[in-house]
Amino acid sequence: MEQHYHFRAAMAQQPENYLIVNETRDIEAAHLQGKTAVIWNSQTATILNGDLKKMAALKDIGVKSMILADNDIFRTGSGQLAAQNGRDIGLTPWGKKVIDEMVRFGILLDLSHTGSKTANDAMDYMDATYPGVPYVYTHSVPAGLYKNEPNATPQGCYRTIPDDEALRAAKSGGYISPTFTEWMMDGIWPDNISPAQAADMIDYYVKLVGVDHVGIATDDMFSTQLVVDFATANADMYNDGGYMIDAFNKGATGNGELAKILAAITDDLWARGYSNEDLAKIYGGNKMRVFAQVWEGKPPEQFLQEYPERLRLRQELEGKFFNR
């Protein structure tokens, strides 16, 4: 609640720039009003502080997706770094209860940062208990794209996910979004990620799971200095054999902020044969479909039937009222 207050108080100083999202219509309204649509995600379930009844309040203040575990071992299960170090405890009974409340209140299960055993256990639980409810990877790099790179490390980046996990998320009706964060790109680590390399990640996932199940993401930090300083001072929390710091030392100095490279990514994907309809799905349409299903209980086929008219109305309103 304290963090929520501080962020909202900052936004209140610029009400013309921000819109807190409660439903998919708010995302469309933000486009019309020239505002940034804000969707909160919690990267662990510790925000509940052991009280499942808080899930409803989290949904109401704008938390629309949640990750079970990040890096370490949590009451819900293990994050990816713990898993790489051989400590993946899998989904716990508490983790199942957390998922139950997420589904009850329409909060999207995000499996980014989650250890493979914990993630697969969670997918097993979702498939058995809540068939038809999608789950997603909001910012995860494809391990399969980099495993054969000449400079790839034996284990690869612990933040990547294997192809089988991406396929399961797509089968659930969810989506997978690659993040264009340089230090996660095992064996490459460019000074600046190129649009072509970002397009490679998108194209890899499209070929793997289909164009209806791919999005885009970014871990925009604008500067990695805070991360480098924190990881260096807290090496025990980033027990990755020096992987991340080594990546920074080899030139991974930032990440591909979408504002810088999205236009060039689009040119690259057009050159590869992607249509405007394909890009509309990747750049937001697939997410909107999943958001509508999980947040609002709208069947995917109903959303897809309604969406062309929603788009037409938005374009008509933009023509009359667009203010940026």
Question: Brief overview, please?
Answer:
The chain has 324 residues and is mostly helical. Helix content is 49%, strand content 6%.
Description:
This protein is mainly alpha-helical and 324 residues long. It has helices spanning 2-12, 24-33, 54-60, 80-84, 93-104, 116-129, 143-146, 163-171, 195-209, 225-233, 243-249, 258-271, 276-296, 300-321; strands spanning 18-20, 36-38, 40-42, 63-67, 108-110, 141-142, 160-161. Helix 2 links the parallel strand 1 and strand 2 (36-38). The longest helix is centred in the C-terminal third of the chain and has 22 residues, at 300-321. The protein starts with a helix and ends with a helix.
Keywords:
globular; single chain; 49% helix; mainly alpha; three-stranded parallel sheet; 324 residues; two-stranded parallel sheet; 14 helices
In spatial order, strands of the major sheet run: 3-4-5
CA-atom Rg in angstroms: 19 Å
> Please, what is the oligomeric state?
single chain
Query: Which stretches of 5+ consecutive residues score pLDDT under 50?
Result: none
Element pattern in H and E: HEHEEHEHHEHEHEHHHHHHH
The total of beta strands comes to: 7
Biggest pleated sheet: 3 strands, parallel
Morphology: globular
Structural class by sheet pairing and helices = mainly alpha
